[in-house]
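thread from #wetlab-drylab

HS: before we spend reagent money on co-crystallization trials with iron/sulfur cluster, can we at least see a predicted complex? here's what I'd submit
DV: go for it
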Amino acid sequence: MSDPREAVADVLRGLAETLRHHRDLGVSEIALTHDPFPDPADALRAQEQALQGCPRCKLSRSRSTVVFGSGNPRARLMVNGEGPGEEEDKQGKPFVGRAGQLLTRMLASVGFDRERDCYIANVVKCRPERNRNPEPDEVAACNPFLMAQIDTIQPPVILALGNFAVQTLLGTKEGISKLRGRTYMYRTGVLVPTFHPAFLLRNPGQEFKRMAWDDLKLARREYERLTSTTTPHPDPLP
Ligand code: SF4
């Protein structure tokens, strides 16, 4: 982007969207006295707090815990899954069961440390009973929260896991096998679709593993390409 006015306009557009999401989430106060750009860790904390006890959809009846998200608020890679499972619902963290352990290894295989380099969240924050797919009204109710997370973190690269997350984020009904293998422009960066680790556990064949490995390498290349030209969130003042 060569025109600095365009860069400033982009930042302001992002800020306006984040503030709109905060308003929709019921966050009534953001300290603007010193820094007009809220620290992403503070912004995510405020969003998480605003979600406690959320009654906005019927998944509130099947959950024990709202699983907001976890990881580095300044991450340049965001990982998006479908929704919490049984273990995640118990612990209040995304991807902590068997699929989560595989995800950690998948990320590490291309040099990403899960805690240091990534922020992980799901399309819906509450566990659907018997791990059924979330329904359209539930996704619609929860969508502003995921969008607020994305607009706060502004990740150059999003790794979207599985049919459900990819279809929801890209607004398509096309299956993951057709969608994977390439990147898509998405908000402030690119989206890389790949298989959900739970699917890979159910289908341990080499073919899916190889495709997932290709997708992860693609995500890594995009990460290198985009983080060498984008300014990371500045560290907060001491
Ligand atoms: S899934 Fe999202 S919208 Fe529904 S109750 Fe949980 S936090 Fe609220």
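DV: The chain has a mean pLDDT of 88.
HS: ok that's useful, forwarding to the group
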